[in-house]
Every structure is written in C-alpha cells, then in structure tokens.
Amino acid sequence: MSDVVEKTLTALPSLLSLDSQPGSGKLSSTSKLGNLIRGITELTSKHEEEKLIQRELSSIKEQVASPNTSMRQMKELMVRAIYCEMLGYEASFSYIHAIKLAQQGTVLEKRVGYLAVSLFLNESHELLLLLVNTVLKDLQSTNLIEVCMALTVVSQMFPKDMIPAILPLVEEKLTHPKEIIRRKAVLALYKFYLIAPNQVQHIHNKFRKALCDKDPGVMTASLHIYLQMIKENPEGYKDLTASFVTILKQVVGGKLPMDFNYHSVPAPWLQIQLLRILSLLGKDDQSTSEMMYEVLDESLRRAEMNHNITYAILYECVKSIYTIHPKAELLEKAAKCIGNFVLSPKINLKYLGLKALTYVVQQDANLALQHQLTIIECLDHSDLVIKRETLELLFRITNAQNVTVIVEKMLEFLRLSKDDYTTIDLVGKVAELWFIETMNTVFSLGGDMMQPDIPNSFLRLLSEGFDSTEEDRQLRLFAVDSYVSLLQGEPGRLPQRFLQVISWVLGEYSHLREGLEPATTLRLLAKLLDMKHTSSETKSWVLLAMSKLCEGPDCVSLAQELSERHGGSLDTVLRQRVQELRHLSEDAELRASVLPRDAAQEPLEVDSSLSFLDGFVSEALSAGAAPYKPPHQRQEELAQAKALSLEPYGLSLPISMSSCSLADRQSPTLLSMSSGLSGNSTDLSHKGGSTTLKLDGVKRVWGKDGYLAQKEPVEESAQVEVPSPLCSPSRQGGADSTHSQTPTPTPTPEPEKEKQQLASSLFVGLGSQSSVCLMGKSEQTPQRFRRKAKGQGSSSGASEQISNSHYSTQSTVDNLLCNNLLDSTVTSDLAVSTPEQTPQLSQEVATTNGTCDAEQDLIEETDPGNSPSLIRANSTVTADPPAHKDPDRPKDSCLSSHLPAELAGLSHSEIIPLCSSQNLDLSACHVQKEDALLLVIFIENSSDSDIECLLFLSQVSCVTDSPVEAVRSLSVSVYQYSLMVKRPAAHVALAGTASYHMALLTQSMLVSCFCLTSLLFLCLGRPLCVSTEEYGTLWLAFSQDTKQNLALLNDGQDPLTATLDVLKNKLQLHVVDIIGAEGIVACRLLQGQPCLMHCRVHAGSLAVWLRSPVPDLPDCLLYHCQRALQEH
Amino acid sequence: MMRFLLLFSRQGRLRLQKWFTPTPEREKKKIIRDMTTMVLARKPRSCNFLHWRDLKIVYKRYASLYFCLALEDQDNELLALEILHRYVELLDKYFGNVCELDIIFNFEKAYFILDEFLMGGEIQETSKQIVNRSIEASDMLQEDDNSDWYEVELFG
C-alpha cells in the first residue's frame, strides 16, 4: 500500500496541472476528487476510510439536493459519487440526479450523466423509466454526439418492455448518412435482439442491408446479429454462405482500409467473426462446407506471422475446419497447426493447443496419441488451469482400459483444487466414469453375499438420475456399454446379483446406445438362461428384461424359441415370464402400455389392496377355496407344524414372485421395499440356523477365491494387455533401444520411462488400430506403420516370386531405372524400404513408361494416318502400321473370339493392345452397332491367380453391368463402353485407369486411347431422313454455318450426282433432293445432332454451305468430305 | 460476447468496472471479490486464462494494473488478450504514457474511451485513430458550444 501512496502523492501536482487541458472542466471540483483520492490513500484503516467516505457522501448529498447547484457542479459531484460507489459505498441518493443530469445537462454534462446512470442503475431499476424520454429526445437530436450517446446508453442497459418505444427511432438510424451512427444503431439492435428477439423480428431484412453496407464497420457490426441468428437457425441463412466467404476472402486478401488493421493484420476481429459464422453454416453440411474450403485454406496460409493475433485467427480456423464437413487436406493442415500450438513454449498457446485437442479428439484420437508426451507433461504442470484442461482432454478419451488411471489423476487434482465450481464439475465427471466401473468391481467381488440394498440403491440412483439429463444419459450409456462387453465376455463368472442388475439396466436403457440392435442384446441375455449356474430368480429378471426389449421380427422368433425351451420349466414363475415374453413380443402395443420405456422413475399407481381382484376372490371363496393367509402367518403355522423343507416349496416361489413381479417392473424404490419386506434366499439363510450360516461361509470363501483367481488376470489384461509391442514398460525399453524410429537413441532415463508408462496406460485403446505408437511424435503415421508390418508378415512370399519373375522380363534399362527410383524413395520415404513393396514400385515404373509413350503418341499424331483405326493405343506407332499389326494378328483372332455373342456378328475394328503389366494385358477394339458405337476392352489375365480389376474410363459410359470384376486366371474379361461425343472436337482422348489388387497391394496403370473425331464421324454419323420442306425449316433454325468449295468429281456422268453419291456411301449422308445444279444433303450424329449441307456446282467446283446447331460439326463434316473425295 | 471488464490494482482495489449484461449488485460484489483473489493469486509464468463458473476469464497485468475480461464459452481467448491490449493502447494514446494514476484520477475518461471501443459486449471500433478522434472531439465540446465545428472534426 505504501508505495502507492507515495506514487500518488508525488504524481498529484502534475495531475492537477494536467487538468488545465481543454474540456476537462473545473480545476476546483477535480481537485475535490483529487482531495478525496488523496485523503483515502492517506488513511491506514478500513474504518477511517469508511468514515471519510460517509462524510464525503453526506456532503455530496447536501449539494446535489441544493437548488443552487449548477449542472456543471452536478457533473463533478456525479464523478465523486461514482468513485464512492466504485469503492463499494452506496450513493443511491444520487441516482435520480444522474438521470436529471443526463436530461438537462449540455453535451459534456450529459455524457457524465449517462455514464453515471449506466454505472448506477440496473436494467430492472424503476428509475430507468425516467430515462426513456431523455433517450427519445436525444435520439431525435440534430447533434450527432447526443445521438451517439443515446445509442450507447441504450445498448448498455435499457428496460426490456420499453424497447418498442424507441425501436422505430433506432431503426431509422440504420439509414443514417453517418457511418458511426449506423454502426451504433446496428449494435443497439443486436443488443435488443439478445434481450428481446421477438421485437426485432420484423427488421431482419434491414439487417441484410446492414450486412451489405458500404462501410466495413457497419458490416462488421451486423455480423454479431448474424452470428446469433445463425446459431439459432443455421438452415435459414445458408444462402448467405457465398457472401460470407467472399467477404472473408477480401478481408484476408487485405482489401479493407488500413484503419481496420491491427498490428498489420487485416481486421482480425472481423476475420474471426466470419470464421465462426462459417463453421456454424458448414456444420454437417457438405455442400456448404465445400464452398469455404478454399478460403479456410487461404486464412491458414496467410496467418503465418508470429503474433498473438495471428494465432487467434489460426485457432479459430482450426476450430472451423474441424466443425464443418471434413476435408482431408485441410484436416491435415489443421492438425499440424494444433501441433504447433501444443508444442509451443508459450504457455497461452499450449493451453489453446490442449483446448483444440479436446475439441477434435473425438474425431481424431490419433492426434492425442501424437502428443501424448506433451499431454503427460501438461498433466504435471504447475499451473492448475493447464492441468485442468489436460484432465478435460483425458476425460474425452476415457475408455474402459484407461479409466482407472484417469480417475486417479482427476482425484489427485481434486485434492489440490479449492475452487468449488471446478470441484463440482470434476466430481461429476469422476462419478460418471468411476461409478459404473467401481460398482462393476463391487458387484463382481462382493458377489451374492452383499446386502441386497446395495444393488437396489444402485439401480435407484441410476434410474432417478442426477440434476442434468445429459449426464444421466451418459452415465446410463456408460453402464450399458460396460455391461454389454461383460456379457460378451464370460458372464458365467458373474454373481447372480450382478446379473440381475445387468439385466435390469439392459432392459431399461440399452435403447440409448445407437447401433445396438435389440436382437443382439436379447441373444446375450438368452445366453444367461442357458447357463447352469443361473438361478431361477435371475432367470426371471433376465426374461423380464427381454420382454422390455422384444421388438422386431428377430426377437419374435427368439421369444418363440425360448418359450418352447423354457415353457415346460418346473418353476411356475419362470413359466409365467416366458409366457409373458412370448405374448408381449407378439403384441407391440400391449408391450408399450405394460412396459413403457423410461418409466422407471415415474410413480406408478399401485392398487395395494388389490381391490380389482375382489370379485375373483369372493367367487373363489364361494367355490370353497381356503381364505388367504399372509406369509408371516403361514410361516408361523409352518413353524408350528415343524415343517422341515422350507426351501424348495414354501419359500423360493412366493419370494421370487414378489421381488420380481412388483419390483423390477416398477421402480427400484419398490424393489428395495419388497425385498426388504420379504427378504430373499440370502437373507433367509442368514436368518436360518448357525449350521447353514457356516456352510455358507465355507462356500463363499471358496467362491471368493474362485472369483479372485479369475478376476485378477482379467483386470491385468484390461490395463496392460494391448496388442502393441511397445506397451509394457519392460518391453518398451527394448523397443526403445532397437527401434530405429525412436527420437531418442539414448536409453530412456527413469522419469522418462515413468512418463511413457503413464502414457501407455492413458492412451490405451485409442486410435483406429490398436498398435499404440508410443513415440507418437515421430512423423510416421500409425497406419503406414501398420501396413508395413502387415506386409512383412504375410505377403512377402507370394509377392516376391512375382517381383522376381517380373524382373527377369524387364529390360536392363527398366531395371536400372527401377533401382534408381527405389534408392531415391528409400531415402525419402521409410515406408517403401521393405522388399515387398518392390512389385508396386516396378509397377509404377511400368506405368510411368506407359504414360510417356502415350504422350509421345499424342504429340506425334499430326497425320491422321491412312488406316481407319479408331483407337490408337499408346503402344502403337503410327508411322509403322504393319509393325504393330503383325504381332497383334494372332492375338486379334484369339481375342475376337471373346467378343460377346451379340456383338460377334457385327463388324469390329482390329483389336489393339492398350497397355500391359506383368499379368494383365488390356486391348481394345470398337464395334459398330445400329444405335451405338461400342468400345470393347479386353482384359487378359496371364497369371495363375484371379485378379480383381477395376477399370475406369472417362467420357464413356459403361454398358457392362459391373465395372468391378474378378478376372479369372488365364482368361479374358470383356467390358463394353458406349462412346458418346458431346461435342465434335479436333480429337478425343479417352483416358482412364485400371486398378487391380495383387498381393494385398492395389496397383494401377493408366489406360489411354486416342480417337480422331473425323474418324469417329465415320462411325457415329448416320443419315438424317428429312423431306425438302423439313429441310427448309431446319436450315433456317440452325445458327452455325461454314462455307467452302470442294473438288468436283468428273466421272463422265453428272458430276454433282457422282460426288454426292460418293459422300453418301462413305459418310452415310442422306441426299434429300437434287434440283438442277444444286443438291441438299442431311446427316446426323449418333446422338441426334443434325448437320445440313447445301451444295451448288459453281465454276468447276462444288460450293458447299453447311449448317448445324452444334458449333464444330460443320467443320468436322467438311473436313471429312474433303478426305472422302480425295481418297476417291 | 464479453460479460464484464474489471480493472484492479495489485492491491485488489477496483479501478474500473464495466458490466455488459445485467448483473445484480450483490453478484457484482461477489464477482469482483472472486476475480481479484483468483487473479492476484496466479503465479508468474502461468497462462493468462482462468475458468470461473461457466465463463472464461482472460487477464493481463500492465504495470501495477490488472485487466480482467470475462468471456462466454465460444469466444476466443487470444483475441480477448488483444482486446485488452488495444484498450491499453487507446488509453496510452489518449493520456500519453498512461499509468495507473491517470486511470484513477480520470476514470470517467477511461469509461468514455471504453464506450467508444466496445459496445454491448462486442467490439465496436478497432482503429486507434478513430476512437481517439471521437473522444477528443467530445472533450472539446464546451457548454455554450453548439458543436457544429466539432462535428466536422469528429465525423470527418
């Protein structure tokens, strides 16, 4: 305190002189505030301070009440009153004067008045009503500063029910010429929207106008409203996505004025606002998300500068990327970004990194694995906030295997933490995780000897739940999960009590688990019925649970089967349950009314006097039945009669009946009551003679041992047994020293080891595969690691053979190339260093060569060539047709036999090889059909195993049913594609890939065919039969035309007819009419696009004029006419 | 959205308070007490973030003064730190080498600056120049002024 006093005192003179600056008001009154402050700092006790302030307040009170006090003095008094209030002393007498000051003062005084009002009064304060008129007046003022002040105070605090009074005026300000007014008006409306959304409903379209405001500040302000509205209803604003993306793009691109920069980062607040809006819009919506991928990528890229504000943007970006529909590439970048946060030495960034991890870990548990050592470090961080955040993260990755360690850590934290809120939160979480697990242990170990009210109160807790429904759901879900997995294990070891609890929980809550079919649960439960050790009491619990679950045809048949098997049981209760099960499974409606879902905690009206049975009883009595005796009376009678054998007849039946039929159908409260009343077998044995008790004890000891012996290995395996070689600490050490991928080559020091051990117990069971890569920080992704391992294990034998044979056929050049490639990849990529990757590599080499050839072909293909081969494959050499024909000849004839029957009769082009690998050969030909042009592709498998091959070609549609087919060994598969040409072009290239599986690896090769449209026309052109009149109308309708002169044939007869005949025969044109020296011709492409030709003999040549609706078709036809006439 | 902003000294004395949502007096007192004890108890080299009930607290110390801002769950902590920083920059620009005493003796000015910077719990204006221009323009106003001239100055 003393140094402040000193500082204050030394600073005072300069402070007082400072006050001479313009507008700071009267020296005298400021010095009064100064005096007050100085006076306070001079005091030594709280008591003195109180006295001083009270004195000050009464002096202020006196002055404000005096009619002689000017507004100017009032202003200074208000400042002092504010100061006193800030110190915690009430100055409520000044409130009314604050309002008066705001009402009557000049601009400067008004400002202090408004400030005082906003500090003194709450939204609900009655005096606030007096302010409404002042605000109204100021909103209408011509003085812009007054308008600004009014808008500010309105957004600060304004009575909800008075909003309608000023709303029109605020609304009006949205079109104000001054941007600062518009901006404040938008923010004021935002505030109204928050406190009374209904009242601003009608101005939503004005918000849109604000969004489009030419001033970026107004636009930014409107985003607050949009964020809120989109949060409530994302569907309603999807149409704005493109606009938001555009705005963000412009902001990121630095298109805003410099004023908006913050430390040379363009408008970070605006950017973050937009990112938040986009993530809301893109959530669970793929098409909307696709619109924003680019700008998100851009934002990530631009925000590289090392400044807090860029990290803020990055963090928001990462959150958006993980919120919207995922895109692998962006996720990868975002994950890297999270890594930068987590590994940052700056503690704030580390904190956010943990938060981000917590956010994404459910989608991508591997990310947590990668940073596990950092997480462990954070767990021991001296800053409790970091520690808590880490626990939050661990809470998200808790599973059955690591729950013990995590709960332990949480409890450790609880011991340190003093904050109530954290404690409540954490205790809830611990309870959720730990409760079920521990109760499982309690039930398994405690077995049947525990007090009956333990399971009862457990069930009551579970069904009554805690405060929040979500937590209850989680807890029940956790219970269901853990019980299902227990039943899937060896339920035979579980005590009867526990089995009863399990059945009840599954019956009530297994519907909570999505994807868990009732039939699956039923089968698990049915298994219990068949076990020898299951007592009949447990069996009726099980059957009741089954009746609750019975839904769907599967279950009906199961119920039927059960009723056949157990329907003849000696136990009547069991028989009854089975009958119930069967009937209820057949009648869903009845089941719903008898056993309503989620009704466990609803009080059932129980007619305890059973009055509805009165008629039945009186009938029975009149028919001579014995009157009813309550159990205790019966027992007494029995005891008197010294009846010996109580157990099999007298007791077990009524008791199990009472405890089951009442309790588990209704509420656990009743359950505990009924079992408390009547007891059950365990209780009875306690009540029985000392001999029985002893016997029981012996049995239990044996039983306990049995359980312990069985239980221990189970527990151990839950914690340690992970299918990874790196898990147990001892093995870890070995792995560290031998494994080349560990970042630390030196033997791990003790504490490190401890951490790793902790890591392995924490991160157990995470990730898509079970091999936990302990040193998760290494670049390698676990999948790759795994694939490699798998390859080593299984495929090496077979594939090596393949690769060897492959090598022998390869030329030396290829081998060299292959080896070179291999070398380079080894250095760059660890994953391909294993020998069995070689076939893939060499395959890639072959593929690359193939592509090169194809490209070369494309380049060389300047001359269309004489042979009308439709398809030029990459292996053909145009300049030398016989060279490729000859070797292909035999193949051609042998492959043509594989043509499908319906195509066999049609003419087909020669079969040309497209590409080949060591086992597969692809060839193709085309077949001319009446209505289509088919491309037929032959896949020849020369290996001795079946190969599954997926062929994908662009631009063609597949005729064959399934594009995936297994090509049997040493045989040929045929695919048909119908060729479509959307638009005539200079040439059409068909490209595609064939991927096939061989020795676990998917390989692919490129297929490329090369078609010339002019040749294509030959196959695709068809005559168009039209009359002269139709021709006329068509002619006028077409827009694309070309004119040219063609050579005229002179064969002696009429040159026009002769020329057209040639064209007709060669190009399948239809000659519509010939009139004198003019002829009209029509044709169409296969898909129906027509082309018309008008010919006129003129000066020894044929002047043709072509028209078509398709742009390139006339040129194409013309070109072909020239060719046809030349060839003739 | 921001919930409240508190400025207090190393001794825990409140220097400025701004509540963006309606809060009862009693609650305010409790929050102020909680904030000062929590923030002042933080060790150096801890992170600048805290949890308090369902709110996120972002605080930063500038010389002898602590700035403490409460955020809602969705808000960005790093950005909040920059809000505090920008506010300090604004104060610095207005007072020139701002120190705690400036804020003690001219707290109403600090409020006015804050009102130009934040509004209704959201950022209103981030430009230092613009905020200062409007504050200075209002400061210049005199009682008998009809302020036409200053409006030109303020609204450019």
Question: Which helices and strands, and how do they pair?
Answer:
The complex is a heterodimer of chains A (1128) and B (156).
Chain A lengths: L1 H17 L8 H16 L3 H20 L5 H16 L8 H10 L2 H14 L8 H11 L4 H13 L6 H10 L6 H17 L8 H8 L4 H17 L8 H12 L8 E2 L2 E2 L1 H15 L3 H17 L5 H16 L4 H16 L3 H14 L4 H6 L1 H8 L4 H13 L6 H14 L3 H27 L6 H12 L4 H20 L7 H14 L8 H13 L5 H14 L3 H14 L5 H15 L1 H7 L19 H9 L8 H10 L5 H19 L3 H11 L2 H7 L2 H30 L9 H10 L11 H13 L19 H28 L2 H17 L9 H23 L10 E3 L7 H16 L4 H4 L7 E5 L3 E9 L4 E9 L5 E7 L2 E3 L5 E4 L4 E8 L7 E12 L2 E12 H8 L1 E2 L4 H10 L2 E8 L7 H13 L2 E6 L2 E7 L5 E9 L2 E8 L4 H15 L1
Antiparallel strand pairs in A: 1-2, 3-12, 4-5, 5-6, 6-10, 7-9, 7-11, 8-10, 11-12, 13-16, 14-18, 15-16, 16-17, 17-18
Helix pairs in contact in A: 1-2, 2-4, 3-4, 4-5, 4-6, 5-6, 6-8, 7-8, 7-9, 8-10, 9-10, 10-12, 11-12, 12-14, 13-14, 13-15, 14-15, 14-16, 15-16, 16-17, 16-18, 17-18, 18-21, 20-21, 20-39, 21-22, 22-23, 23-25, 24-35, 25-26, 26-28, 27-28, 27-29, 28-30, 28-34, 29-30, 34-35, 41-42, 45-48, 47-48
Chain B lengths: L1 E8 L4 E6 L5 H16 L8 E4 L2 E8 L2 E7 L5 H19 L4 H6 L1 H11 E2 L2 E2 L4 H13 L7 H8 L1
Antiparallel strand pairs in B: 1-2, 1-5, 3-4, 4-5, 6-7
